[in-house]
Write a structure and sequence with these properties.
alpha+beta, 208 residues, ten-stranded mixed sheet
């Protein structure tokens, strides 16, 4: 049996620490909600901000929704997270992968959304209204938050089996870092927003 929460990856140690902190933050939010609401059901912006806080707690100061130039344009463009180290910045774009976990393969849906994140982070040409002076100090990362769901009436046994398969598939995937959390309290607790079960979430990320 796979653990219902965990981190598997080989990005810099700060990212592993951030993923561990992300899990702790999700767990705390769930507890504070008395398990009647699920933080992963909120907006992409909310989910990326939760991870920005985790990065900061792991020692990499991170700003959600930082202003950037895209394709050399100085419009109201923003990147989900700008993580600032002593000698580099890491631009991180997140996408949400929502899907019916009983019908679609996790890795396929995740790869599709990763392509979107990659395309979006690659068109950033400057930050805070200024073009990059030295792109060698600019790191780019694509990331995906998974939002698997199940129809109401799906048996707890089936949901648990598929969750286990999701974790196995993630761990076997080529993404350099992956983290997941599926609190047992949510396995067959209907969402308050949608007429489905949303038993948990996962995160994958890769440097470009």
């Amino acid at each position: 049996m796979e653990n219902l929460s965990g981190v598997d990856g080989d990005l810099p140690p700060s990212w592993n620490s951030a993923c561990e902190q992300w899990i702790k933050t999700i767990e705390q939010l769930c507890a504070n909600f008395a398990h009647k609401d699920a933080p992963w059901e909120y907006l992409e912006r909310t989910n990326s901000a939760i991870f920005a806080g985790a990065l900061t707690a792991a020692g990499v100061p991170a700003m959600p929704e930082a202003y950037v130039n895209r394709n050399n344009e100085r419009r109201d463009h923003r990147v989900d997270i700008c993580a600032v180290a002593s000698n580099s910045i890491d631009l991180i774009e997140f996408k949400i992968a929502g899907y019916d976990a009983a019908k679609y393969k996790t890795v396929n849906r995740t790869r599709s959304r990763m392509k979107d994140a990659t395309r979006q982070v690659n068109n950033i040409t400057g930050i805070f209204g200024n073009p990059f002076d030295d792109t060698s100090q600019v790191l780019r990362t694509g990331a995906v938050i998974g939002l698997p769901c199940f129809d109401l009436g799906t048996s707890e046994t089936t949901i648990n089996e598929i969750i286990q398969q999701i974790i196995v598939d993630l761990r076997r995937s080529s993404f350099p870092i992956k983290a997941w959390i599926f609190p047992s309290q949510y396995v067959t607790k209907p969402s308050r927003r949608y007429s489905k079960y949303y038993p948990g979430t996962f995160l994958v990320a890769q440097r470009l």
